[in-house]
Amino acid sequence: MSDESKKIDEVANNSLYTSTAALATINYSYEIFSRYRLGEGSILELGPAEGTMTERLYRDGYKPELLEGSKVFCNQLRKKFPDLEVYNKLFEDFEPKISYDTIILGHVLEHVVDPVSILRKVGTWLTNNGRIFAAVPNKRSIHRQAAVIMGLINHEGTMSAKDIHHGHRRIYDPESFRHAFAASGLYVEHFGGYWLKSLSDSQIERDWTNEMLQAFLILGERYPDIAAEIYIIAKK
Length: 236
What we know:
Layout: H1 3-13, H2 20-35, E1 43-46, H3 52-59, E2 65-68, H4 71-80, E3 86-88, E4 100-106, H5 115-123, E5 126-137, H6 142-149, H7 161-166, H8 174-183, E6 187-194, H9 201-207, H10 210-222, E7 229-235
Parallel strand pairs: 1-2, 1-4, 2-3, 4-5
Antiparallel strand pairs: 5-7, 6-7
Helix pairs in contact: 2-3
């Protein structure tokens, strides 16, 4: 097992992706995904982890193929979705059998060693009219800005304990996120954001109602530059 595979399994063995806030944001990103009708045709999901996005796709009648670097997560996914194709490979090593109409990178690019290289590679897996849906955390989120003002972190791009726990290698802002796609030769069709996050996950999960969380997920779409999460839909 490579060092990278070991690192991914360490994250999987201590996953926080099913916390209340994490589940809410993944589900909301699926709502955005659905608006653009990205589920039509062949689908490849990169880094599905426990399969929260996968489950939404599956419930809506889609059968995505799953590419996951963690053996731990792959074992869970195969038990949960026995009729789906699950590939346990690093993204850099994957060679697809087909081209895909939709490729999902939900919170992938902040983890990989070379995101531009990954995007170039993923772009070759698309059909001629295929599109990529990618989402990442936004360093300009107001909760990060507030943390700087309070002296909790040095600057918005400082890795939090949760970032480190998840194995993040970088935190994007809207400009650097768009630049990664431009540098890879992909065309950004749509850019947006969701979740106007003012507090930490633990504070939100302790004090907020579900109605409050949903309202602030929606508000983030009005202010994408300072939303907690940003997304891009791109094509060749």
